[in-house]
């Protein structure tokens, strides 16, 4: 038996690579791949020869050297003798906390403004339109600088508290100054201490065991209260009578936490005016607050537009049906309209979160030490390692962006309407 | 028959609505005081408006237009009994003295007509794209405009932009001839290779010959003299105009069936969209020269334009991809059934429609890019914000803050607001089309 | 569409710049202008006025080099650089020299591969505080909030100073001087620290300068000077000796007023003659002509004149000569001899 000869083998001509649609796409791709490889080779070759001329081969040794500069707002312990790597880590955490806080407030504000934009109250709707247009049409960098300047010029200085021109709020517990906001901090007299990870290396960080214990007990309480609720549901299903359980559920959550707080010896450390500044309590720098406020307000204007579009896309029949059922208009919004609008709102919301995170790199304009200020700022200036620092910085931002978009896409898929 | 009760034979005339429902009072009741929460809301908003205006207006109305320094402003304000600079009133002298600088940077003042003219011509060039009912013949001018604009702003020999333009004509004929004689792939290759040979090998000797025969040209302007809003507009417009072709190619690549091409396009788009613009500007200011052949050197503005173009093209690609996805599948099938090849189908059927519905998206990308040009102040270019810092370093105006920021914010608002209104108008127009 | 303009400019720029294989001197001569990196705006040192004309103490050094090399002090292209971009700009050849109050340090000289052509201003980091604060020494600043202008060695010196004295502080890093000044005046920081020269010029612009004082401590040595790339010694020599010529001219009494007269014929002082090229050919050894130094002096005057005109006591900046007096008057400004 003879095999059937492959027709293409018999009459294969090179011109088929160009004219035969079976092969042409391969040809195009190979040419493109070749071109791209050539381009990257050219870039790498240029870089190598330029770096050789400058006498600065790529190396990351500088990350292990002492940073020699101080950082004012930090989540982990840090001194000027720590390494550049640790300084960058502090910067990265500062970026993340700013982005996290910004996303939350921007969402809350954005939803509120988007809803109010559709308010029946003419004045409120107009003011919200004005707000949205003003914030959307002026660059965010300008907003950051303006908010920062307003804070510096209008808030009282710490010395004004001494002379009595300004006073602390809420029974001497909160001080708002033009350097930052000081609030009381929870402290424990019988603290369990920290659980230190990574020894004394640059990546070291401590986890507060107090916090871990409190969280465990809190979640235990929540779990128990859900049990009670399920039980009540069951009784209701069987007998039609629902036992009153709210006090049981509440006390299951509150009492254990209160007891553990008492065991740990909770007290509040109040900020006090000592020397030049307030001491004690937790402290949020005005640069962080200005960025937080400016980024939230700016992004909220965009989110508000998305929310408005989402709400208007929900068919009018839905709200009419809700009214026909006698549901009040505020509950119609929260129970009927918003859950449906959410599906339309979430995809653009993801890109707003990404924008906010990327815009947080403008912190450099007000001296907040985020990743751009540490790794791509002072570390770059002091070590002169532009290539390494900028590429590392870009890689970290890329990783953050990809992480945010994958988490949000996962969430989006989980709330998406399942079509049949 | 029982006598019927009275039956009215004519219609009762309409009565005016009750006073509480009609006219101004009714409108107020309906729109601002319909129930208690609404009334409270109205009250709160009115109070906020009153507070904001009450603080800002006295500051804005300040008779300091003709002052020549902050010190003079302070004395003027003190004379009329206001309390110093900052709270008492604005110092508008700085705007009077420097507004031209904020607009044009350090462009020679006797040549201001050149950027103004190129800005006006930009309007003419864009008219056929932005508005219907404008003669399509102007599209020819749109194609020539970039070269005219380049020559107007940077000046120098007139032969340079002309010979660069000739490169495109060569590219076109290369495509047509290659296509006729050896098929579309050869045509495309010829369209790419021939102009590259022209630009990089033949252009500069031919230019120098032309210059020595007929030295036509205008005064050349160094790009470090560009600044202010002119620079912002220039970077924004260049970024968008250049990113359009790149964005179209990236979008087509991302939609294509060729896995390698698709992968490269997706990687590029996601990379650019994943990093902040400021890091790309750092690349422009510190790294781009390292990536290029040893010894090559362009000035910072050009490097910024390159990076901004790459940045914008990733966003543009996504906008155009949206336009491509919004086209009904029947359009693609119709093109296939007519036997058109890929490029013909794209050129004649798909892209014209996809681009048309992408215009609102393109306009909002432009607004975003235009606002983002303020970031170049961080790497030391003299855009409006960078110039504000520069002006504040001047002895006479040291300590000025809100006047400059306010002015810059106002101009940005005017530009961006009008563009966003145009985009909304366009969206409405497109919406009625379907 | 617009691609062409872009590509064209790109091509033009590549060709115009050529390949910098030849020496910097040849490049500068071929380009017909000196590309000089300066700061983006620091009153007295480098600042562009409303017409874009640059002026200042650092700018004068650029102009002197341009005059020596090209014969015209106005043939300078000033490239504003930030703390971040200045070294890359110099290393990549975007600028031929950097005259932007840059501190001469070991790592910049050795690790970053630059050559400092000398010192044109001896500075040191100081502190400014409102008199109302009631401090008389920087060592009393425990717990204070300190505004720092970033991008220089300032933040490192500050960290070292407070660490060495065992006191704490709260740093507020700020990019530009005008921003830092706004924060300081609003009381967002207790003290402001930067180079003492910067403090003096900042204080001079305050509404009421007498309410503020510069604390006595100088916490660092900041020799500021122009710099060039490693590897082109001839170009480094030209910048170094142009600066030296300005310094020597002050020492020998050659000013912008009398330089033309001294240059026209050999005088009695042999060093003046050597400097101005009426005797010997020092310029030829640099690859320049004989009159290089006389042109450099003529454009803005000698070192003393430049100082007095831009930052001296009679200007709004009002800095006394101090350390920057000529060595003959007890200062540190000293030039190697022209021989």
Mean pLDDT of chain C: 85
- Classify the helix fraction of chain B into a percent range: over 70%
* CATH architecture label name of the largest domain in chain C: 3-Layer(aba) Sandwich
Q: Give, in spatial order, the strands making up the sheet with the most strands of chain B.
A: 1-2
Helix/strand order of chain B: HHHHHHHEHHEHHHHHHHH
Number of helices of chain C: 14
Helix/strand order of chain C: HHEEEHEHEHEEEEHEHEHEEEHHHHHH
How would you characterize the largest beta sheet of chain B?
2 strands, antiparallel
CATH first level of the largest domain in chain C? Alpha Beta
Distance between the termini of chain B: 64 Å
Quaternary organisation of the protein chains? heterotrimer
Compact description:
The complex is a heterotrimer of chains A (420), B (434) and C (339). Chain A is mainly alpha-helical. Chain A is 65% helix and 8% strand.
Please give a structural write-up.
- The complex is a heterotrimer of chains A (420), B (434) and C (339).
- Helices cover 65% and strands 8% of the residues of chain A.
- Chain A has 420 residues and is mostly helical.
- In chain A, the strands form four sheets. In chain A, strands 1-2-9 form a three-stranded antiparallel β-sheet. A two-stranded antiparallel ribbon of chain A has the order 3-6. A two-stranded antiparallel sheet of chain A has the order 4-5.
- In chain A, helix 6 packs across helix 10, helix 8 packs antiparallel against helix 9 and helix 11 packs antiparallel against helix 12.
- The longest helix of chain A has 34 residues.
- The mean pLDDT of chain A is 86.
- The radius of gyration of chain B is 30 Å and the shape is globular.
- Chain C is α/β, with parallel strands linked by helices.
- Chain C is built from 14 helices and 14 strands.
- In chain C, the strands form five sheets. A five-stranded mixed β-sheet of chain C has the order 10-9-11-8-12, sandwiched between helices.
- The chains are: A mainly alpha (420), B mainly alpha (434), C alpha/beta (339).
């Amino acid at each position: 038996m003879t095999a059937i000869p492959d027709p293409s083998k018999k009459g294969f001509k090179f011109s088929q690579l160009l004219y035969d649609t079976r092969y042409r796409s391969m040809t195009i791709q190979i040419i493109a791949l070749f071109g791209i490889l050539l381009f990257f080779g050219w870039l790498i070759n240029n870089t190598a020869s330029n770096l050789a001329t400058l006498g600065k081969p790529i190396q990351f040794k500088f990350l292990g050297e002492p940073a020699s500069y101080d950082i004012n707002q930090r989540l982990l312990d840090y001194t000027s003798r720590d390494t550049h790597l640790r300084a960058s880590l502090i910067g990265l955490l500062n970026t993340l906390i700013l982005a996290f806080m910004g996303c939350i407030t921007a969402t809350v504000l954005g939803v509120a403004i988007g809803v109010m934009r559709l308010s029946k109250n003419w004045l409120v709707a107009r003011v919200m339109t004005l707000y949205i247009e003003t914030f959307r049409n002026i660059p965010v960098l300008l907003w950051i600088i303006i908010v920062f300047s307003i804070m510096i010029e209008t808030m009282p200085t710490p010395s004004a508290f001494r002379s009595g021109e300004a006073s602390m709020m809420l029974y001497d517990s909160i001080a708002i100054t033009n350097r930052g906001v000081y609030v009381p901090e929870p402290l424990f007299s019988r603290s369990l201490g920290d659980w230190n990870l990574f020894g004394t290396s640059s990546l070291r960080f401590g986890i507060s065991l107090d916090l871990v214990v409190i969280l465990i007990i809190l979640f235990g309480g929540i779990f128990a209260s859900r049990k009670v609720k399920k039980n009540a549901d069951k009784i209701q299903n069987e007998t039609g009578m629902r036992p009153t359980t709210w006090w049981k559920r509440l006390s299951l959550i509150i009492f254990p936490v209160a007891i553990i707080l008492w065991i740990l010896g909770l007290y509040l450390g109040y900020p006090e005016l000592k020397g030049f500044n307030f001491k004690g309590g937790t402290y949020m720098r005005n640069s962080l607050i200005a960025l937080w406020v400016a980024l939230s307000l700016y992004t909220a204007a965009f989110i508000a537009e998305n929310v408005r579009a989402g709400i208007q896309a929900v068919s009018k029949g839905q709200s009419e049906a809700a009214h026909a059922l006698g549901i009040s208009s505020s509950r119609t919004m929260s129970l009927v309209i918003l859950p449906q609008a959410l599906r339309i709102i979430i995809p653009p919301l993801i890109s707003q979160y990404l924008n906010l995170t990327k815009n947080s790199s403008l912190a450099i304009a007000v001296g907040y030490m985020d990743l751009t200020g540490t790794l791509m700022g002072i570390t770059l200036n002091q070590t002169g390692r532009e290539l390494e620092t900028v590429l590392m910085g870009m890689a970290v931002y890329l990783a953050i962006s990809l992480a945010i978009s994958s988490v949000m896409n996962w969430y989006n898929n989980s709330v998406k309407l399942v079509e049949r | 028959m029982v006598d019927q009760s009275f039956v009215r034979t004519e219609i009762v005339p309409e009565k005016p609505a009750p006073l509480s429902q009609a006219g101004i009072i009714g409108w107020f009741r309906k729109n601002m005081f319909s129930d208690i929460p609404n009334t409270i809301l109205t009250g709160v908003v009115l109070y906020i408006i009153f507070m904001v205006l009450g603080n800002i207006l006295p500051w804005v109305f300040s008779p300091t237009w003709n002052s020549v320094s902050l010190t003079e402003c302070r004395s003027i304000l003190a004379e009329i009994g206001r309390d110093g600079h900052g709270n008492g009133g604005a110092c508008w002298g700085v705007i009077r003295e420097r507004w031209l600088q904020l607009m044009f940077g350090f462009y020679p003042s006797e040549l201001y007509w050149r950027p103004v003219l190129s800005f006006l011509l930009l309007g003419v060039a864009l008219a056929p794209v932005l508005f219907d009912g404008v003669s399509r013949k102007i599209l020819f001018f749109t194609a020539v405009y970039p070269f005219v604009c380049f020559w107007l702003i940077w000046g120098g020999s007139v032969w340079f932009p002309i010979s660069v333009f000739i490169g495109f004509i060569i590219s076109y004929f290369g495509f047509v001839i290659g296509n006729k004689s050896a098929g579309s792939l050869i045509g495309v290759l010829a369209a790419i290779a021939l102009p590259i040979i022209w630009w990089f090998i033949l252009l500069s000797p031919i230019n120098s010959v032309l210059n020595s025969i007929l030295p036509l040209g205008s005064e050349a302007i160094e790009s470090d003299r560009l600044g202010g809003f002119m620079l912002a507009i220039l970077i924004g417009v260049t970024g968008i105009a250049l990113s359009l072709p790149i964005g179209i190619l990236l979008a087509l690549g991302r939609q294509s069936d060729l896995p390698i091409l698709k992968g490269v396009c997706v990687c590029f788009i996601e990379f650019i969209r994943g990093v902040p613009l400021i890091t790309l500007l750092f690349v422009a200011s510190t790294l781009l020269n390292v990536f290029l052949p040893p010894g090559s050197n362009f000035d910072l503005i050009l490097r910024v334009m390159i990076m901004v173009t790459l940045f914008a093209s990733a966003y543009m690609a996504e906008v155009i991809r949206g336009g491509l996805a919004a086209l009904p599948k029947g359009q693609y099938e119709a093109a296939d059934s007519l036997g058109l090849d890929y490029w013909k189908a794209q050129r004649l059927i798909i892209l014209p429609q996809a681009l048309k519905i992408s215009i609102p998206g393109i306009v909002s990308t432009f607004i975003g890019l235009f606002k983002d040009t303020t970031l170049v102040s961080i790497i030391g270019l003299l855009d409006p914000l960078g110039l504000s810092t520069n002006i504040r370093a001047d002895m006479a105006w040291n300590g000025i803050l809100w006047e400059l920021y306010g002015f810059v914010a106002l101009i940005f608002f005017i530009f961006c607001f009008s563009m966003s209104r145009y985009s909304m108008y366009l969206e409405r127009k497109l919406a009625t089309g379907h | 569409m617009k691609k062409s303009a872009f590509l064209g400019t790109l091509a033009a720029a590549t060709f115009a710049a050529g390949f910098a294989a030849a020496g910097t001197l040849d490049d500068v001569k071929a380009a017909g202008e000196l590309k000089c990196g300066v700061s983006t705006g620091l009153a007295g040192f480098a600042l562009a006025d409303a017409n874009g004309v640059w002026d200042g103490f650092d700018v004068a050094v650029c102009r002197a080099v341009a005059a020596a090399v090209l014969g015209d002090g106005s043939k300078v292209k000033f490239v504003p650089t930030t703390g971040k971009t200045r070294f890359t700009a110099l290393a990549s050849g975007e600028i031929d020299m950097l005259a932007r109050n840059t501190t001469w340090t070991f790592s910049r000289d050795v690790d970053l591969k630059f050559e400092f052509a000398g010192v044109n201003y001896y500075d040191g980091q100081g502190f400014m505080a409102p008199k109302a604060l009631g401090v008389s020494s920087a060592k009393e600043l425990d717990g204070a909030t300190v505004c720092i202008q970033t991008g220089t060695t300032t933040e490192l010196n500050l960290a070292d100073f407070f660490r060495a004295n065992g006191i704490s502080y709260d740093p507020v890093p700020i990019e530009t001087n005008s921003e830092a000044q706004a924060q300081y005046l609003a009381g967002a920081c207790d003290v402001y620290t930067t180079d003492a020269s910067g403090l003096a010029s900042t204080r001079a612009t305050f509404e009421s300068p007498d309410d503020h004082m510069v604390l006595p401590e100088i916490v660092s040595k900041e020799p500021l000077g122009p710099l060039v790339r490693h590897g082109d010694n001839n170009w480094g020599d030209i910048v170094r000796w142009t600066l030296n010529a300005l310094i020597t001219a002050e020492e020998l009494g050659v000013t912008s007023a009398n330089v033309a007269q001294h240059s026209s014929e050999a005088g009695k002082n042999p060093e003046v003659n050597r400097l101005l090229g009426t005797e010997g050919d020092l310029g030829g050894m640099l690859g320049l002509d004989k009159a290089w130094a006389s042109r450099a002096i003529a454009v803005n005057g000698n070192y003393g004149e430049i100082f007095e005109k831009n930052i001296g006591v009679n200007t709004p900046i009002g800095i006394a000569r101090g350390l920057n007096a000529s060595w003959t008057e007890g200062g540190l400004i000293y030039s190697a001899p022209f021989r």
